[in-house]
Amino acid sequence: MIGSLSSQVSAQSDDEEAIEEVVTTGTRLKGSATAVLQERQNQAFVADILGADQISRTGDSDAAGALRRVTGLTLVDGKFIYVRGLGERYSSTQLNGMGVPSPDPTRSVVPLDLFPADIIESLSVQKSFSPDMPAHFGGGNVDIRTKTIPNDFVFKLSGSLGSNTNNRDDGFFYSGGGQDWSGRDDGTRALPALIANNLERAQSDDGIEGSSRFPLSLSDRQNMLSSMFWEIGPDQQSIDPDFGLGMTLGNVYSVGAEGEIGFLSTLSYDNSWKVEEQFNGTSLGTVGCEDLPEDRVNDGKCFAQSFDGVSTEQNVNWSGMFNIGYEYNANHRFDMTNVLLHDMRDRVRVRDFVDANETIFGTTELSRVDMLFEERRMNSNQIRGTHNFPEFKNTYFDWYYGTSRASRKQPGSLDVVFQLNFDDGMFVDQQLQDVSATSVQRDFQTLRDVSDSAGWNFGYPLYLKDLELEFKIGGDFFEKARTAENLSILVPHRAIADNATFGSRIDEIFAPENLLNADFYNSQTGAGILESGVADGDKYAAGTKVDAYYIMADAFINNTWRVSGGVRYEDFRQISVPFSAHANTFSIEGDEIQEIAFQEDDFFPSLALTYLMSEQMQFRLNVSQTAIRPDLRDISTTFFIDPLTEFLVRGSPLLQSSKLDNIDFRWEWYMADGNNVSVALFYKDIDTPIELVELGTVGGAAPNLLTANGESGQLYGIEMEFLQDFDFISKNLNNFYISGNLTLSDSEVTLGAVDDDEISLFEQQVLDALDATSASNIVTNNQRRLVGHSEWVANLQLGYDSSNGEHTATLVYNAFGPRIIVPGTRGNQDAEEETFHSLDLVYTYFPDFKSSLKLSVKNILNQDKQISQEGLDLLFEREGISFSASYSWEF
């Protein structure tokens, strides 16, 4: 949005020469604090906006970290935002107002840590629904708005260094491919061509072991096994410091008498490390607890399996953006935005493994080593136009088109269990676990999302006495196609000769000379050394298509009342079709495909009423109806691993959409010097809310979670927000300010799992998943809070700006109340993530107008991440204290 700023500069000589007038114009940046506050005040619908200036002050490196500062928002797993306690499925994400695909295989929503702060101009969180946004709306809509062309020439370089207190300890790592520094695997970890060719040749037979038509020899199996990447170790090594580089270049040029064209380009690169103590537990119960140490048992309950050790992780992130803008006659503007985002995560964990069924302390103990390498990538190309026609009573027409690609590669992840043998408590030797059902597991995963967005809107303003009226109609169209595959290859321990299983390192046991030696194999032909773990549905294709149209009006009445609203129509279609294992054909066909196709269309109304009591104070009321629809994985029966809990999660083909009735009321008071205060009340009534429930498992198997519809749900609460400088205390303190927000809320979901003669929708989905006849004993609490909901969320900032403009400092506090991560089953209580008190300090020094030095300390309180169930740690991660310093130069 472009506005004009005029200033008059006067100069007069001693002999009273004529006054010279100079008029300057400039662009009003959305990222500036004043513009952000004004935009929020002028919104017809309830919204919170975070600008680039505010993000810079808090030192957050990406969109996810920045958004947790917004009223009522919490961050889960460092990637996903919960708005007003509703899970990530209840919010939608846009890039410059357009839909984008997700590179996350477990969710269709976009992981927000993918967007670096360097490219963000502002973040808009609209909490009340308006007809011109997607009807997939629960907690809110997050719009990531990238930086636009500058007012003048800009060339900026930046560099940063950092570390974490945990990184003082050595980590366990390995040497990977030659391009790991760039965040890309050079093929070292990729699925070997020998194995891929064998799988393709024997698609309709027995997978990797071939068939009678294509018999494998010992040599064939040796070559395939040897072709895998085994040089993992891992080795204990010291950790390098984090570092980052960035560059921004842009300019604007006059084109003719009334035209302007400009560009902005950015590049950034970050390489960081994290060493972390971790503890995980799975399968809470009472079996085997008597043999475990006291600290792993509480009230007769324990986890059947637990892992305790060190995680070492390297992250490489780089991004690029190139924007071009052209404006003609201040009424016509074209913008082209091109964004490329790439990040890599390379993690190795070395942990003690306690299995209640297998561990005998002092005799047979276990350890587990796993490696995960993943690349996520997204590129988006967008073009938009805005056209104002003063000659036609200020009618306007806007349009946009965007195409985006997202991908994820996870080549050759590894999971191996070692057995430590003791004699009278003294360590003797180490080997691969001596259990016939145990295997070394290698996974090769790929995912690709492709999406196209297009839309337009037409507005017609009408000015009457004491009435300003604007009519708006528009259309939004979104298509997304996804293909994904998980290829799992097992190396069974039983297929390896007994004496060849001994060793403490992966690269020692699977050394080239061993793999090419016939004595390594338990069979003369090597039979069974490679097994396929692929099941039907591990490869799938899915698609989503949404066609939407809306009509709305916005009326100012006597500069006192504002009435905005309208209705949106959406036609939604979605399908996810599984492939057969070892075959490039669907595992279902005909009527079965028709049955899993998901289609619905509906109208979604919205009305917003604003009373402008004065220029500084206003009251808002918004009512609307929206829907939350299942995503691509929710309607699939294929299991995937939740990245936070590492539980297996599956969907239900019987899943239905959730319908929401939303009510918001907010009072806002905007005072001088940017001081402001607001109080909001909100209520949501949810029909058939989409929730998680744990299914029964056998022995120490990983818990299974099902995505299912509850019967009903409610969410209600109050939000309070303020910003105030200290000028009211003393003029000497006007350089200090305090701001903060507090959300208090409650929620309740009724699942419908009761022991009666009627089968609820929830019970029908559980019974279908379990192939059982009763589901009443699965759920501990038929009524509970919504998964992910925190009853309170608090943010507080204490800021300082020096009078000479050379120094700024911000102390930032963020905390949330306990939230359910995994609902309790079979009498066990819910697993909850405990409160994390985050306290960060950011200081910036501006030596001159061209450079700045920023120092930050994060997690000053040295808090740890903890998920507890029945007094035991389901998850514990030692976060450590992070330090960083960055310097930027502008030429």
Care to describe what's here?
The structure is a single chain. The protein has 891 residues and is mainly β. Strand 36 and strand 37 form a beta hairpin.
Question: What's this model, at a glance?
Answer:
The protein has 891 residues and is mainly beta. The protein has nine helices and 42 strands. The protein is 7% helix and 52% strand.
CATH level 3 topology: Maltoporin, Chain A
Structural class: mainly beta
Question: Cα-atom Rg, whole angstroms?
Answer: 29 Å
Work out the number of β strands.
Answer: 42
Specify the CATH homologous superfamily: TonB-dependent receptor, beta-barrel domain
Shape from CA axes?
Answer: globular
Mean pLDDT: 87
Assign the CATH architecture: Beta Barrel
Low-confidence stretches: 1-31
Whole-Å distance between the termini? 26 Å
Total count of domains: 1
Fraction of residues in helix: under 10%
The CATH first-level class comes to Mainly Beta
Number of helices: 9
The profile of the biggest β sheet is: 22 strands, antiparallel, barrel
Percentage of residues in DSSP E strands: over 45%
